[in-house]
């Protein structure tokens, strides 16, 4: 009888200890931070990288995928906390002008982007101005685009008008566009896509931008990150760490390549963070 009572007491104490431990863990949590991201390869890569880094620091991180315009709207309304990718002064200028009073712009983490119409290097064409004259030779009727709301697509629609191109611009998505590029490249078939760098495609395939003499796609941008208003007050250490964050073609390219070759995105991000502990430590010191 006494033995049975003793067992019950021990069990009760164990349950209380477990509950106490759970409450402690909850109190130690630094809160939930929500990233908004669109499905550009580098955006997916760096957002997952920061998810891994910040979760190791005690935060709960949620990633919400959507098109670029809703990301800006979500940050401005306070529904999202962080967006890791803003291209300025050219690509995201329309969104910046619309929402700049309701977001907090932070530091540059990548310098010198590019974007425009891209073809495999085996294609005998070098300029957007040649597209109409070589249409029959190329045997193409369309340009494969990405998300219809992306600034790159708006620029591409402008390019069709400015160069009076006799092609259809097809709405798609980043992954779907890359699938079409991969298939055409492997068969050495002609294809025209809307693309940008930094992107792992330029390491994987031999590609070239078509010259843009009218400068429709503008000059090179830098990539910044932005936060909701007052996020700096709520989480100053995150803003400090992310303002220390700098990447170049080598570091960003290796991150995207590691993720691309991993079983899933977060696993690849974890692997890269582990392999680049010294660099990450500089950001979070």
Descriptive account of the structure:
- With 285 residues, the chain is an alpha/beta fold.
- The protein folds into two domains: 30-112 and 220-283, 3-Layer(aba) Sandwich (D-Maltodextrin-Binding Protein, domain 2); 114-209, Glycine betaine-binding periplasmic protein, domain 2 (D-Maltodextrin-Binding Protein, domain 2, 3-Layer(aba) Sandwich).
- The chain is 48% helix and 20% strand.
- The chain is built from 13 helices and ten strands.
- The strands form four sheets. A three-stranded antiparallel beta sheet has the order 3-10-4, sandwiched between helices. The protein has a three-stranded antiparallel beta sheet with strand order 8-5-9, with helices on both faces. A two-stranded parallel ribbon has the order 1-2.
- Helix 2 packs across helix 12 (265-275).
- The chain is globular and about 65 Å long.
Secondary-structure map:
Layout: H1 2-28, E1 32-37, H2 41-56, E2 60-65, H3 68-77, E3 82-88, H4 93-99, E4 103-111, E5 114-120, H5 135-138, E6 142-144, H6 151-162, E7 168-170, H7 174-186, E8 193-197, H8 201-204, E9 207-209, E10 222-228, H9 231-234, H10 236-244, H11 249-261, H12 265-275, H13 277-283
Parallel strand pairs: 1-2, 6-7
Antiparallel strand pairs: 3-10, 4-10, 5-8, 5-9
Q: Percent helix among the residues?
A: 40-55%
- Give the overall shape, derived from the CA principal axes: globular
Number of domains: 2
Q: Identify the strand order in the major beta sheet.
A: 3-10-4
Number of helices: 13
**Overall pLDDT metric:** 90
Q: Which structural category fits the helices and strands?
A: alpha/beta
Q: How many distinct beta strands?
A: 10
Low-confidence stretches: 4-27
Distance between the termini: 58 Å
Sheet-strand content, in percent, reads: 15-25%
CATH topology of the largest domain: D-Maltodextrin-Binding Protein, domain 2
What characterizes the major β-sheet? 3 strands, antiparallel
Output the CATH class name of the largest domain.
Alpha Beta
What is the alpha-carbon Rg in Å?
A: 24 Å
The name of the CATH architecture of the largest domain is 3-Layer(aba) Sandwich
H-E order = HEHEHEHEEHEHEHEHEEHHHHH
- CATH superfamily heading of the largest domain: Periplasmic binding protein-like II
């Amino acid at each position: 009888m006494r033995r049975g009572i003793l067992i019950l007491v021990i069990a009760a104490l164990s349950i209380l200890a477990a509950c106490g431990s759970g409450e402690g863990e909850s109190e130690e949590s630094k809160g939930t931070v929500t990233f908004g991201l669109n499905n550009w390869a580098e955006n997916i890569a760096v957002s997952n990288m920061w998810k891994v880094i910040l979760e190791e620091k005690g935060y709960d991180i949620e990633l919400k995928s959507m098109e670029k315009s809703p990301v800006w709207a979500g940050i401005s309304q306070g529904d999202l906390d962080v967006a890791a990718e803003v291209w300025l002064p050219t690509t995201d200028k329309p969104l910046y002008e619309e929402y700049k009073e309701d977001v907090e712009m932070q530091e540059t983490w990548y310098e010198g982007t590019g974007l425009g119409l891209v073809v495999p290097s085996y294609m005998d064409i070098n300029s957007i101005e040649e597209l109409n004259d070589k249409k029959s030779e190329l045997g193409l009727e369309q340009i494969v685009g990405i998300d219809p709301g992306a600034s790159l697509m708006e620029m591409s629609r402008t390019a069709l008008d400015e160069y009076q191109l006799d092609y259809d611009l097809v709405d798609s998505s980043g992954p779907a566009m890359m699938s079409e590029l991969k298939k055409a490249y492997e068969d050495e078939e002609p294809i025209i896509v809307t693309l940008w760098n930094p992107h792992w495609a330029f390491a994987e395939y031999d590609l070239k931008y078509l010259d843009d003499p009218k400068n429709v796609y503008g000059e090179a941008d830098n990539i910044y990150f932005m936060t909701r208003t007052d996020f700096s007050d709520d989480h100053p250490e995150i803003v400090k760490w992310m303002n220390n964050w700098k990447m170049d073609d080598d570091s960003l390219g290796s991150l995207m390549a590691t993720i691309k070759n991993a079983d899933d995105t977060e696993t690849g991000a974890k692997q890269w963070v582990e392999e680049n502990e010294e660099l990450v430590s500089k950001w979070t010191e």
